[in-house]
Design goal:
By secondary structure, this protein is an alpha/beta fold. It folds into two domains: 166 residues, EAL domain (TIM Barrel, Alpha-Beta Barrel); 210 residues, Hypothetical protein af1432 (Orthogonal Bundle). 47% of the residues lie in helices and 10% in strands. Strand 4, helix 4 and strand 5 form a beta-alpha-beta unit. Helix 6 runs antiparallel to helix 7, helix 8 packs across helix 9 and helix 11 packs across helix 18. The radius of gyration is 22 Å and the shape is globular.
Length: 386
């Protein structure tokens, strides 16, 4: 069976305990999430994926080492692709020896599940489904790492998995972003005021006045202006210089994202930030594929970025957007998931591109795959520069 040139796979970020993205988990859409041979060929058959997500690695979940033919292994760079193999595969004849050979050839292998006493391959790095109802397992201190905890759906589960010895985490726990001590009512009011200014395309002077009232946002904006992404050799020390260097359109986009970076300068990164960047870039790319003009692309990007503001502010989305004066179709997409933009927002939020949802959103498999590659590439750069 020939592989599809545009695979339908679920792509999920993996972060370490310091809230930094370290890899991407690739999952199939069938029950269990494992990838078969044709899908692996489709995913890695071109250099686009590993190039787009560099320097992050990719973790692939497979049922058995038997799917790894020589043709497929030729596509899987040992330094960039980790193999998470179901523990049940150890019962297959020759599987332990095959895994040992793969390790010897440079592949990093995670044993997914609990092998019990049957780990004849001697694998000492694990991956576990730690979703709701699944125990975080006993301590992993006697094994090599980093160990991957999958489907971590809450901050409480994250803490339990970290205590058990896991070092890599994948799941929806970032959506439960904890409040910080600085998030009082005045801060929320200030941020909403800044959002309203951005939504009505306020002039640079008004933005400067608001930014000067917020030391954390001021810090992040000046850091961004002096980053490699915009630097031209001259240090930027004022907001006027920063706005001039970055450019008006890019400034508006970065300020939307900087709302999620509202933490102490020396604090850990906010995991909502790369997710917001990912959604915004994906919706923008899809709009561009449709032939949308610059304004339409900007609004699609805004919808993606703003789609996590309810999580950031711990408020209903309707309350967040009430004073932002957004276009009706953007507000409808954010509050009620209405229209094509709303359906695309649902797709970007779920990350699971089943055929029915793609069709409802007016997207084909090729368009979705290219939008995902662009979005992850851009989100990775955002994290580096903010």
């Amino acid at each position: 069976m020939a592989p599809s040139p545009s695979p339908l796979v679920e792509v999920r970020p993996i972060a370490n305990a310091q809230n930094e993205w370290v890899a991407l988990l690739l999952l199939g859409l069938a029950d269990g999430g494992t990838l078969d041979g044709p899908t692996l060929q489709a995913v890695f058959g071109t250099p686009d994926l590993l190039t787009a997500v560099a320097p992050l690695d990719c973790v692939v979940l497979i049922d058995s080492p038997s799917v790894l033919t020589q043709a497929i292994l030729a596509l899987l760079a040992p330094g960039r692709v980790l193999l998470a193999v179901r523990a049940a595969a150890l019962a297959e004849q020759g599987a332990s020896q095959r895994l040992a050979e793969l390790q010897a050839s440079g592949y990093r292998i995670l044993l997914d599940g609990d092998p019990g006493a049957g780990n004849a391959a001697g694998l000492r790095t694990v991956s576990r489904d730690c979703g709701a109802g699944a125990p975080a397992t006993a301590s992993l201190s006697g094994l090599f790492g980093p160990h991957l905890a999958r489907n971590v759906d809450s901050l409480a589960r994250f803490q339990a998995c970290e205590n058990a010895g896991f070092g890599w985490f994948q799941g929806d726990y970032p959506l439960e972003q904890a409040r910080t001590g600085s998030e009082d009512g005045s801060t929320r009011k200030h941020l909403l005021t800044l959002l309203a200014l951005l939504a009505r395309d306020a002039d640079s002077r008004e933005l400067e006045i608001q930014l000067k009232q917020d030391p954390a946002l001021s810090y992040h904006l000046l850091k961004l202006a002096n980053s490699a992404a915009f630097s031209c050799g001259t240090e930027i020390t004022s907001f006027g210089q920063a706005i001039s260097r970055i450019g008006r359109r890019q400034l508006q986009r970065w300020l939307q994202l900087l709302l999620y970076a509202h933490t102490a300068p020396d604090g850990p990164p906010n995991l909502l930030l790369p997710l917001a960047a990912l959604r915004g870039a994906a919706l923008e790319a899809l709009c561009k594929q449709d032939g949308g003009d610059g304004e339409a692309q900007d609004l699609a990007f805004m919808a993606g970025v703003f789609s996590l503001l309810d999580r950031l502010f711990h408020l209903p989305m309707a309350a967040v957007v009430a004073d932002l004066c957004l276009p009706a179709h953007v507000e409808g997409a954010l509050v009620r998931q209405e229209g094509q933009l709303g359906r695309r927002l649902q797709l970007a939020a779920s990350g699971r591109p089943d055929a029915a949802l793609l069709s409802a959103a007016g997207i084909d498999a090729a368009g979705w795959w290219q939008a995902q590659l662009h979005a992850y590439h851009w989100a990775i750069q955002v994290v580096r520069n903010v």
